[in-house]
Amino acid sequence: MHLCGLGFEAEVGLEAWMQDVAVSLPPAALTSRLGKVRLRLERDVIEDGRLAVSETATNALRYGRAPGDRPPTAPELWIWARTVPSAQLVVSLFGCARISYPHASGAGLLDEYSKGLGLLGEFTAEWGSAPSRSRLAERAVLGKTVWFALPLPGTWPGLGHRVHPGTAAQCLLLALMKRGFPGTLSSDDRGISVLELPGLNVWVHRKNFCWRDGPSSCVRRPLIDLQETAEHLVRDLLGSPARTS
């Protein structure tokens, strides 16, 4: 499989690849990337993931063209792990089309684009779509993701991993700035850091990220879920909710 030179993103807890926009590839070629992630997945989970990647890749490559006169932007494949709501592997396909989102019809399949996306609910723990920004383009590009989650085994080594809160705060700020959101970072003598973002502050405690999700509610995510937190914050900063099934 031929990938663009900026294919691998060396961020904490994330593997990401960009397809060369000048090269036409069968969607199934992207499924080989799932096998590169060593997370002790069971064989049937890997096979379910390959099918799900094939369907989401088909959607991204066929319908992910830039709107209007915008230049073409290469699809991106993102893979990370999260522990909330449970230990899961998240696989996300990003494309620059952002006009509409897949949704379930009364028949249980999808009205828009590939009806094969309706299989995601049968082969994955959860799936959905959300507005987002590119991770690998030279400049942050608006678009959307179609993603799904696979269950991780109880033997997944990441469950016992610990992240230093100062490191987590710096990595989160860098991840958001790279995607076009300016911010500043400060810390107090108790070791609590605060990320100040446009219209949103994120507190980094010893074990958790925390930010307000409304006048009277807060969101908490463990530091190990750094990439999941970054994606959640991108949606909040864009002012658009995720759609899940």
Describe the protein.
The protein is α+β, with helices and mostly antiparallel strands and 245 residues long. It folds into 2 domains: 14-158, Heat Shock Protein 90; 161-244. The chain has 4 helices and 11 strands; from the N terminus they run E-H-E-E-H-E-E-H-E-E-E-E-E-H-E. The protein has helices at 43-63, 120-123, 165-178, 226-238, and strands at 14-18, 76-82, 88-95, 126-133, 142-151, 184-187, 193-197, 200-204, 208-214, 217-222, 243-244. The chain has a 6-stranded antiparallel beta sheet, with helices on both faces. A 5-stranded antiparallel beta sheet has the order 6-7-8-9-10, covered by helices on one side.
Question: Which labels suit this protein?
Answer:
Heat Shock Protein 90, alpha+beta, 21% helix, five-stranded antiparallel beta sheet, six-stranded antiparallel beta sheet, disordered N terminus
Q: Brief description of this entry?
A:
The protein is of the alpha+beta class and 245 residues long.
If helices are DSSP runs of H or I spanning 4 or more residues, what is the number of helices? 4
Q: According to CATH, what is the class of the largest domain?
A: Alpha Beta
Strand order of the largest sheet: 1-2-3-5-4-11
How much of the sequence lies in strands comes to: 25-35%
Return residue spans where pLDDT drops below 50 for at least 5 consecutive residues: 1-12, 21-27, 105-114
Give the termini separation.
31 Å
Q: How does the SSE layout of this entry go?
A:
Layout: E1 14-18, H1 43-63, E2 76-82, E3 88-95, H2 120-123, E4 126-133, E5 142-151, H3 165-178, E6 184-187, E7 193-197, E8 200-204, E9 208-214, E10 217-222, H4 226-238, E11 243-244
Antiparallel strand pairs: 1-2, 2-3, 3-5, 4-5, 4-11, 6-7, 7-8, 8-9, 9-10
